[in-house]
Amino acid sequence: MKTHIKNIKTIFLLGIVLTGLLAFTPANEEHKLSADRGYTIGDVVADFKLKSTTGNMVSMADNRSVKGYIIVFTCNHCPFSKAYESRIMALDKKFASQGYPVLAINPNDPSAYEEDSFENMQTVARAKGYTFAYLQDETQATSKAFGVSRTPSAYVVKKEGDKYTLQYIGGIDDNTQDANAVTKRYVDDAVNNLLAGRPVVNNFTKSVGCAVKWKGV
Question: Which CATH superfamily groups domain 38-211?
Answer without folding.
Answer: Glutaredoxin (3.40.30.10)
